[in-house]
Design a protein that fits this description.
Blueprint lengths: L1 H24 L6 H40 L1
Length: 72
């Protein structure tokens, strides 16, 4: 389940990064809507990365608890 979530999060981040790259590479002709979308996507990526960080923190805590319980 966590693996599926990781895959989904990575796919979303990659998709957003590609759109931001497109906006940056065409910045000389960047339309306002494309610029707004790039800003929105960066914000979404930040949220997704925060969520991913929370998942890793949870997994780390769970692993530490399991290792501590194993050593008792």
């Amino acid at each position: 389940m966590a693996e599926e979530a990781d895959s989904e999060l990575v796919a979303v981040v990659r998709e957003h990064l590609n759109k931001v790259k497109q906006a940056l590479f065409s910045r000389s002709n960047m339309e306002e809507t494309l610029e707004e979308e790039a800003v929105r996507l960066v914000s979404e990526m930040d949220s997704v990365l925060n969520e991913l960080g929370g998942m890793f923190l949870y997994l780390e805590c769970t692993l530490e608890k399991a290792l501590t319980a194993e050593n008792l």
